[in-house]
Amino acid sequence: MPENLKDISGEITVWAWALEADFLQSIVPEFEKEYPNIQVNIHKQGPDQVYQRLITGLAANQGDQLPDLVQIEETRLPSYQEHFPNHFTNLSDLGYDRYDGHFAPAKEAAVKDENGNFFAMPRDLGPVGVFYRKDLFAKAGVEPSSIQTWEDYMEAGKQVLEKTDVKMLGLTLNEVVPLYKYMLQQQGAFYFDQEGNIDVRSEESVRAILTINQMNEEGIISNVTNWDGRVAALKNGQVATLPGAIWWTGTMKDQMPELSGKWGAMPLPQFKDQQGIGANGGGSNLVIPKASENKAAAYAFGEFATTRVDLLIDGLKNQGLFPSLLAAYEEPEFQDKQEYFDHQPVYKEFAAIAKETPSVHYTSDYARANDIVNDEIISMLLNRKPLSQVLKDITQTLGPSTGREVNES
Amino acid sequence: MNTPSPVPHPENPATQGKTKKRNNFVSIQRAPYFFLFPAAVLFLLFTAYPIVHSFILSFQTTTEEGRVFVGLDNYIRLFQDRLFYESLGNTLIILVFQVPIMLFLALILANILNSGFIRFKGFFRVSFFAPAVTSLVAASIIFLLLLHQDYGLVNYLLSIAGLNSVGWLNDPLGAKISLILVTTWRWTGYNMVILLAGLQNIPKHLYEAASIDGASKVRQFFSITIPQLKPVILFAAVISTIGTLQLFDEPYTLTNGGPIHATTTITMYLYRNGFEYFDFGYGSAIAYVVVLIIAVLSLIQFKWAGVER
Amino acid sequence: MRNSVIQKTILYIILAMGVILTVGPFYWMIVGATNPSGETLRIPPRLIPGSYLMENLNHLFASVDIWRSFLNSAFITITYTFLAVLISAAAGYAFAKYQFRGKEILFSAFLISMMIPYQALVIPQFELFSTLGLLDSYSAIILPQLAYPFAIFLMRQNMQSIPDSLIEAARVDGAGEFFIFFRIGIPTMLPAITAVSIFLFTHQWNNFLWPLVALISEEQYTLPVALATLAGQRSIDYGQLMLGASISILPIFILFLFLQRYFIAGIISGAVKE
Description:
Organism (chain B): Paludifilum halophilum
CATH class of the largest domain in chain A: Alpha Beta
Main location (chain B): membrane
CATH architecture of chain C: Orthogonal Bundle
Oligomer: heterotrimer
Structural class of chain A: alpha/beta
Number of helices of chain C: 13
Radius of gyration of chain A: 22 Å
Number of domains of chain C: 1
InterPro entries (chain B): ABC_transporter_permease, MetI-like, MetI-like_sf
Number of strands of chain C: 0
Pfam families (chain B): BPD_transp_1
CATH architecture of the largest domain in chain A: 3-Layer(aba) Sandwich
GO biological process, one term (chain B): transmembrane transport
Shape of chain C: globular
Number of strands of chain A: 10
């Protein structure tokens, strides 16, 4: 890296979507002040567009069609890294290793390769907790602090249903059940173990599946179709809780301002006799394709966007993007008592969750595993497919298609 | 209606031989090549080349060293892939229900619009055809909202009628039915227009003779309309079969293949393998199995209709 | 007599139901375009247009350059349709009216290519256009399907009905082959050409997957690509999207209203001549 910032020059193109694109756009003026000879073009697109172009450009081996910097979620990072190993810039070589240990541990693990080199610069995170309707809980006589385990949660759910005729939670049974993933992660487990073997038969996994299934049998789950169904169910008071990531707070404030003060938040309940509350849902990162002709400028902008505390705080305030840089959690804005959550310091509490979240090995087969696992779990919930059959079908489909070993229970 | 009448065999070399010799650079022998030149060049470059390329891809897999040949591995793997069979099954189920239902509806509408006394034919034609010229991005949003289990108009109307709400997109069977309905909505008018055209070509005197013999309208329909319309029905059936076997946009935008891959069609599975699982070789192999199936089904349809080619 | 009145009534009821089913969703789209986003998810559903059109329009303008995309779509689609019709008419004419070597093979190749799922061709096509340096341009969208097999097929079917005697007579008069094509082939085939034009126009206007990948700059976006950027990951503004969708459908509707007569006539001759 050149010593003098003015020495880095050039024009860079950045692909990003939605709020992340807005955030990156918002920091451009400041960036160009510090790096007067770099011109940044933010190209805001739909998420499908970003991924489809990226994969097409890589698969067709047309590196020059790629941008200098691009947004990728951590769930997809290993797929890109392993399928196209020589197509992304090793950022540690460019000096990013100086930020070793600066980010939430699970995030940092997700953006490094097996040799510990940074391949992506970490942006936002989605620490998961349970949002709940204080008024409905009060009406049902449920004391939030009494919910420590998933068993407590289920009991509370039954009570809420009985007293208020409201279901405890909404799941999108025609799409995905992220709750299973959260339950795995909080126990330090995942679809795959650290060696990349298929691990859905683990004790943790079975525990999680059975818990969700039991909730379904108790009738406390509402099937809410899709994204809009989830939002509408929250807005219309059809569900009492939402196990979800921090970015839901943005949607809640935007779409249902009338519910201000009625919401509370708590960490995920634990499993009985088990530790662990940390899980993550969503979050993205910035990578530099190797074909970029302006790596120095792209690096400078990526570093600027991921490590400047003041800008990250702005991003949290304006776009609701929860940073992964630990230093940001010490800022006063994180201690704010939020009116919408009845003066609860939600950011601070979720920052604590972010720090505790165990890392998971997504692997290059995450997308395939996610599709298959969700389909099977939904089969169980909708069609009462027995657990043994569910596990058998997952492993027998996933094993051959990924060529991965299957761990026996 | 400006409908050309049938002509004698159009490709008779004998008639071409009679032509006077001319000194034109573009002779009769050369002319077809000139006429075909643009289409052939564009086709070779932009269609044939990618096809050959993707066919080669179907024998390859991507490794850390780039693409390597793996022989028939992708095809062999395909035959052991449960999800492949399921998506093939979904596609065939949709085909078996959707194409006949659609052609049946199209035939009814075409017959009604072919009756002499119906007025406002132009209006009805445009209305029925409209869905076919609608961008699916738009149509799918409408149907997502119409069929929403909790907020959709369809379930609201059912509830007014005192019926239970249906999981149009939430339930595996419901989603399949929805997909069949939406595809039918989109393409019935298109097929109706094709069939209507065929109906108008049936000589009127056949019906007049039948009426004199005292044949009922229903009898006339089965003894005159259907046999006369056979080639047109075949044309519509082949086009619809190709369309349904390649069904992608509707499930992609409406149900995303779910729930429990109940609406994952074969082309959707192809797309997933390529663009989501980065397994382009495998995706290409699926594509060529689709080609094989379409070719076989088209042949069967031609055989069934007894058309010689 | 009574019987036929009842019969007519039943037929009209069937037609009316058909119209409600096919056109109803469009009406609802317009209702959605004139109401605030949240209203769309209300129970009971709103069935009358609201007064939120201008707000939705402003939101739409703030998110995408819809007019620019409209112009892009219009330019691409019109250029494409004009060229593709000409190319497929010429090819169809050759297949219908000449004997030449390689005819069967070429025609079969065209037909078989119709059976290949397009999704499998995106990657090789991208590679090709990248090598040609044509990505992110109008040509990237216009070129790939200029030789559209289905259009060539329809044209061939139609061209077969041009009386050979007409062509022969022209040849006897000393007319060249091109002259005959342009003066006899094309004019007698106007209904078919209109039909194929509408077919190609619709096809290109709705073209989605390839432009999504091939067009990179916002200034080049076609309408379907621009609409796709409206749908974010974690929320959809329905009012805005419905309005954008209405705008993208309108030209197709108008075109079809004007040209539907020819369209149907053209399909007739194409379909019947198997």
